[in-house]
Amino acid sequence: MERRSFLTLVGATAGAAALGRPALAQDKKFNITLVPGLTTDAFYITMHRGANAAAKALGVNLGFQGAATWNVTEQVPVLQAVIAKKPDAILIAPTDKVQLIAPLKQAYDAGIAVFTVDTFIGTGVYQTGSGDADFPISYIASDNVLGGRTAARALAKAIGEKGKVYVSNVKPGVSTTDQREQGFKEEMKNYSGIQVLDTQFNDDDANKAAAQAQAVIGRVPDLAGIFGANLFSAIGAANGVKQAGKKGDVKVAAFDAPQSIVDQIRDGTFVMTVAQHPAEIGYFGVVCAYAHLTGNSVPTAIGTGFTVMTKDNIDDPKVKRFIYTG
Amino acid sequence: MTTISTTAPPVGRRLLARVADLRAWLFLILLIGFFEIWARTVYGSTFVGNFYNLQSIGTFATAPLLLALGQTFVIISSGIDLSVGFTMGLAAVVGAEIANFAAPHVGVFAAMLCGVAAGVAVSVIPGVVNGWLIAHLRVPPFIGTLGMYGVARGVAFLLATGMTVPVSNSWMTWLGNGRVHGVPVIVILTLIVVLAMQYLLSETRFGQHTYAIGGNRAAAVRAGINWQRHTIWLYILAAVCAGLAGVLYTGRFSAGAAQAGEPLLLDSIAAVVIGGASLFGGSGTIAGTVAGSLVIAVIQYGLVFVDVDPFWQFVAVGVVIIISVLVDQSQRRFLGGQQDE
Predict the structure, then answer these.
(1) pLDDT recorded at residue B9
(2) Which end of chain B is more exposed for a tag (fewer CB within 10 A), N or C?
(3) Rounded to an integer, what distance in angstroms lies between the CA atom of residue B315 and that of residue B319?
(4) Cβ contact (<8 Å) for A243 and B184?
(5) pTM for this structure?
C-alpha cells in the first residue's frame, strides 16, 4: 500500500509539472526519452552516448530510463512512468514485438511521438495504415540478419572456407540474437565445405558457454570455428577454446564491440568481431525525432551498418571509433 | 561426520542414513556410467577415461561449487542467500578495477594479489549486512538477501559503468586459466576451499552450531549458542565464497562482469539440494554439495559431448533435478523424517 501511494504521488507530481510547463512555441525545448532494452549493456550505453551528442547539438532535453534486464514485465512499468511525464517523443527498444504494442499505444494516444530503435513492434514496418502496430514514426536499427551474415563471411574466410562450426547463443526467443543466428546459418549454406553443427544455448552464462565449447571440441576434435552471438557467448566460447588448448586452431568470431572483446582481438583470442553502430542509432533516433517534432517528414526506417574488426584494422581510427563506450 | 544427538540411532537406520548421505555420489556414478555407455556405443570413445573431459568438467563445476559451498552452511542453518550471484559480480568488478589500478604502481603479480584481496574483501560487506538484517532486524532471509541481490547488482553495475571491465594482467590470466601438472589452478583452489569447508562444518564447534541452529533454533539458543553472531558469520562465509568465485571469474575471462554470477545462483542452490541438504535446515554435507555440483556439471557437459539436441538438454537437466529431489523426499519419508546430521 505504501509503495502504491508513493507511486501515485510521483505520478501526480510529474503530471503537475507537465501542466505547469509554459507552452511557448518559440523557446520550447523538446523533451525526448530514450528507453533501452536494458540499461546494463555496453550497446545501449553507447547508443545513449550517440543520442546525447545529437541532443546537445539540437538543444533537446534527453532522458534515459530503462530496466536492468531484458524483460517485458520490467520494461513496461518504466515505460508507463515515462509516459506519465509526457515527453514529446519516446525512443524505445521494445523487449517484445507483440507485448509492447498496447503500452506504446498508450503513449501514442497521449500525443507522444513513438520511435523504435534496435528492436521493433509488429512487423517493424510503420505508417502503412494497416495493423495495430503501425503508429510509430520510424524504426532506426542495424539489420541483425545481415550482421549474422557478415560474421559468417568473415569466419568462413578465417577458416579457409572449410570445416565444422557452431553458434554459441544466449537462449531461444531473443529477436536480435535469433536473427544473428539465422543470418549466420543462411550465409554458411553458400560454403559447401562448411558444416554448421547444432547451436548451443548458454543462458548468458560464460562459464556454461566455455564448458559447451570444451564438450563440442571433445566430440569434434577437428572443429574449425565458433560464432559467439553475444558478449558472454563469445567470451565463454573463447575461454573454452583456450582451456582445451586449441587457441588459434579453433577460430572464434564475436558479435558487438565492448572493450573486453576488442582487447581479446588484439591477443588473438577472437579472429574478428562484428561491431554494430549503436551510437549512430542513438544519434539518428534523436535527429529523426527532432525533425518530426519540428514538422519535417522522416523516413519510416533507417538502417545503420556494421564494421568488421580484426587484429589488422583495430588501430585504424576509422574502425576504432566503433568500440562501444559510455 | 559428527552428530549433535547424544543417543546413537539403531545400526540399520544408521546404515540407511549413510546411504542417503552418499545418494548424490551414487547418482553421479550412475550418470557417468550412462554417458560412458552412450559415448562407447555411439562414438566408440570413452567419456570418463578421457583426462580432457575430467579437466573440462572440473573447470565447469568450480564457480557454481564455490557459490554452493557457502550456501550449504546458510541452508543448513535454515536460511538462504539469494544475493551470492551478484556478490560474485561485485567482487569480479572490484577485483578487475583494483588489479588494473594497482598494476602500474606495484607490478602485475602484486596487482593480481591486490585485485583478489580487494574482491574478496568487498564481498564481506554484503555478507555483514545480510547477517545483520536477518539476525538483528529479524528480516526473513529470503527477503533480506533479495534486497541485497538488488543492492549488490546496482553497485556492481555502477562501479563498472554498465560495461564489463577488461583486465590484462598475465597473473590474473594464470589464476583463471593456468595449469599445474595438467590440473587447472581454479580447480586446485576450489579443492582447497572444499577441504577447509569440510573441516569447518564437520570438525569444529562452528559447524555443530550451524546444524543446531538449523535443526531447532530455540533449543540452540537455550543451549547457549549466540545465534545472532553465528548467523552474521554464516552470511559472511557465503559472501566470501562468492567473492572468491568472482575474482576467479575475472581471471578466467580477462574481464570483470557485474552479471557474472546471475545465472549461477539457481544452479548453486540446486547443487546443495541435490547434495542432500534440506531447505528446511538442519541437514546437509559438504561432500553432498560437491557431488551435487558435479551432477549438474556432468549432465550439462555430457549432453553436449554426446550431441543431444539443445532443446532436449533443457528438458533433461530439469528432469534430473526433479528426480533427485523426489528421491530425496522418499528417502526422508522412509527414514521417518529423520534429520540426518
Answers:
(1) 58
(2) N
(3) 6
(4) yes
(5) 0.83
Could you give the strand order of the β-sheet that contains A138-142, starting from the edge strand earlier in sequence? A61-64, A31-35, A89-92, A113-117, A138-142, A301-304
Evaluate whether residue B339 is within a structural domain.
no
Q: Which of A276, A278, A277, A231 is nearest to A253 (CA)?
A: A231
pLDDT confidence bin for A2, thresholds 50/70/90: very low
**CB distance B164–A218 less than 8 Å?**
no
Helices of type H across A143-229? 144-158, 175-188, 206-219
- How many independent structural domains does chain B possess? 1
Q: Does B157 touch chain A (CB under 8 A)?
A: yes
Per-window interface: B 57-96 vs A, CB < 8 A = 57, 59-60, 63-64
Contact flag A244-B52 (C-beta cutoff 8 Å): yes
Chain B residues touching residue A205 (CB < 8 angstroms)? 263-264
Residue A117 CA to its chain's centroid (Å):
8
Residues B225-266 have pLDDT tens digits of: 999 999 999 999 999 999 999 999 999 999 999 989 988 998
Give the integer Cα–Cα distance in Å for A265 and B165.
15
Could you report the per-residue pLDDT of A5-42, keeping only the tens digit for each? 444 444 444 444 444 444 444 457 999 999 999 888 88
pLDDT value at residue A8: 47
Domain boundaries, chain A: 2-136+278-305, 144-276
Q: Do B301 and A211 touch (CB under 8 A)?
A: yes
Q: Provide Rg for chain A, Cα atoms.
A: 21
Domain-embedded: residue B33: yes
ipTM confidence: 0.83
Interface of B with A in 172-191 (CB under 8 A): 177, 184
Report the alpha-carbon distance of residue B300 to residue B265 in Å, rounded: 16
Q: Does domain A2-136+278-305 have CATH number 3.40.50.2300?
A: yes
CATH of the domain at B140: 1.10.3470
Looking at the complex, does the CB of residue A73 fall below 8 Å from at least one CB of chain B? no
* Cβ–Cβ gap A210/B260 under 8 Å: no
Q: Which three cell numbers stand for residue B182?
A: 595438467
Residue pLDDT, tens place only, A48-77 = 999 999 999 999 999 999 988 888 889 999
Indicate the pLDDT class of residue B336, thresholds 50, 70 and 90.
Answer: low
Q: Which residues of B305-315 are buried (b: 16+ CB within 10 A; e: fewer)?
A: bbbeebeebee
* Rounded alpha-carbon distances, angstroms, from residue A90 to A67, A79, A111, B134: 15, 9, 11, 42
Percent of chain A with pLDDT over 70: 92
Q: Is the CB of B151 inside 8 Å of chain A's CB atoms?
A: no
Residue B255 belongs to a domain = yes
- Does residue B1 form part of some domain? no
CA distance B303 to chain A (A): 9
Which candidate in A170, A196, A207 is best for mutational testing of the B interface (most B CBs within 10 A)? Answer: A207
The reported pLDDT for the residue numbered B276 is 85
Q: Which of A201, A239, A244 sits opposite B252 (nearest CB)?
A: A239
- Quick: pLDDT tens for B191-221: 999 999 999 999 999 999 999 999 999 999 9
Q: What is the mean pLDDT of chain B?
A: 89
The reply to whether A2-136+278-305 and A144-276 are identical in fold is yes
**Homologous superfamily assigned to A144-276:** Response regulator (3.40.50.2300)
Check CB contact under 8 Å for B59 and A243.
yes
